[in-house]
Task: inverse folding
């Protein structure tokens, strides 16, 4: 079964609703054994990087998630802040260590004239990977709310959006996936991301 | 690039969608979840739910409506009306809202904006401002309580203040234009845009697709909100977006 990692992230219930709507069974859990026995993992997230990592640490989930992903090879999808936490570190309000599952770091969106930070709204995805189950994301708009973004090697990009800088929208390194946007708030395309993850990536 | 947002507003009274014509005569146009699903299908970018009578009648928020809508509709939802505490905000966010809109409560207790922003992030806190031109004294005046109470507060100064307090977005309704279908108050949005750098949603006055084109071309507002023209099908969103695209406005 898919597990949504329970650490009081703000969008948890909306993510659950989306899976429920799709008829996909999920469990909300912070139990290490249940996490290790999952077919796939979802790491939701809204808010600031530091406090979210602290919560994961307090719940002793950092090692569990790493082991599940790296040793048991369980596919994981991080959403919004959950995606940012997959990277090595973030400079949001100080320096914080991430889960380090994808090489790269989280930086502030550079302030440019006319661009408002946070980026809030629908932006158009540009496909950056030739062979992916998520090819359907090409030229589709998805919903973003964020002030920080991932800086990483091109090889981890599935799609990007243009917001003054090229912002990684969907990333992947092996069995680890992340979306900067909110699939649970991105209409049909967003639901399709969750469905594809649970049907094609999770086996 | 980021798309300009088209936002239908659902005025809700007792769990049913209403549209207040000039904030007074209410006409029932239906069930919130059904309407929300229809708007999602049409391509609306976001939905705003306002419990328009909540402040006056001291009614509590519409947690159940939000819960029901967010189980069937997967797009950003803003909820306002009768929210008076951080606990109210939390209940609505947990029910599935993405943003909380504060209006009268922000004027009565500006600290509520900061408390909400600190707890949930600036992006969660929308301050709704109802504005009417005070002709006598020549300024934009803030109104509260569903447009019934003049406050004597200058709207331009208020907008700057709420952003400093933590508002992540402004939903600004021109009461002079609301219900007239004569176009958005572009001059007001130009003035506001020059003063604040958070997203601004224009509201009040939408009558035709051209009104949307004009507000997006002549001001830097991030979204435009309307109710009756959408509810009664006078403007359909797919058609509106086609027109906007042809006019060079970036829409989804």
Result:
């Amino acid at each position: 079964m898919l597990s949504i990692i329970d650490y009081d992230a703000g969008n948890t219930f909306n993510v659950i609703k989306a899976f429920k709507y799709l008829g996909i069974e999920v469990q909300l859990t912070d139990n290490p054994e249940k996490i290790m026995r999952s077919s796939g993992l979802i790491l939701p997230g809204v808010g600031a990087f530091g406090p979210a990592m602290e919560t994961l640490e307090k719940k002793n989930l950092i090692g569990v998630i790493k082991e599940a992903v790296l040793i048991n090879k369980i596919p994981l999808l991080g959403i919004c802040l959950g995606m940012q936490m997959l990277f090595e570190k973030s400079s949001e309000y100080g320096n914080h260590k991430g889960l380090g599952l994808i090489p790269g770091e989280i930086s502030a969106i550079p302030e440019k004239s006319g661009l408002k930070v946070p980026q809030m709204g629908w932006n158009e995805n540009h496909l950056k990977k030739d062979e992916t189950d998520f090819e359907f994301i090409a030229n589709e708009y998805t919903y973003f709310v964020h002030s920080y973004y991932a800086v990483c090697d091109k090889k981890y990009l599935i799609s990007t959006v243009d917001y003054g800088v090229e912002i990684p929208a969907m990333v992947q390194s092996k069995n680890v996936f992340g979306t900067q946007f909110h699939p649970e708030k991105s209409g049909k395309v967003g639901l399709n991301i969750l469905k594809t993850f649970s049907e094609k990536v999770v086996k | 690039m980021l798309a300009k947002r088209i936002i239908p507003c659902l005025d809700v009274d007792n769990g049913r969608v209403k549209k207040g014509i000039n904030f007074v005569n209410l006409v029932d146009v239906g069930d919130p979840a059904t309407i929300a699903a229809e708007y999602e299908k049409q391509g609306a970018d976001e939905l705003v739910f306002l419990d328009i009578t909540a402040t006056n009648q001291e009614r509590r928020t519409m947690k159940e409506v939000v819960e029901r809508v967010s189980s069937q509709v997967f797009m950003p939802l803003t909820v306002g009306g009768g929210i008076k505490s951080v606990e109210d905000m939390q209940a609505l966010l947990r029910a599935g809202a993405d943003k909380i809109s504060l209006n009268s409560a922000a004027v009565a207790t500006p600290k509520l904006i900061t408390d909400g922003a600190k707890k949930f992030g600036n992006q969660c806190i929308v301050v709704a401002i109802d504005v009417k031109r005070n002709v006598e004294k020549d300024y934009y005046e803030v109104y509260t309580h569903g447009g019934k109470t003049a406050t004597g507060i200058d709207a331009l100064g208020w907008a700057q203040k709420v952003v400093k307090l933590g508002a992540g977005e402004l939903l600004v309704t021109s009461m002079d234009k609301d219900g007239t279908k004569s176009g958005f108050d572009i001059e007001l949005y130009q003035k506001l845009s020059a003063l604040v750098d958070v997203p601004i949603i224009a509201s009040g006055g939408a009558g035709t697709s051209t009104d949307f084109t004009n507000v997006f071309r002549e001001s830097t507002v991030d979204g435009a909100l309307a109710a009756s023209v959408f509810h009664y099908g006078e403007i359909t969103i797919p058609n509106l977006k086609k027109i906007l695209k042809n006019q060079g406005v970036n829409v989804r």
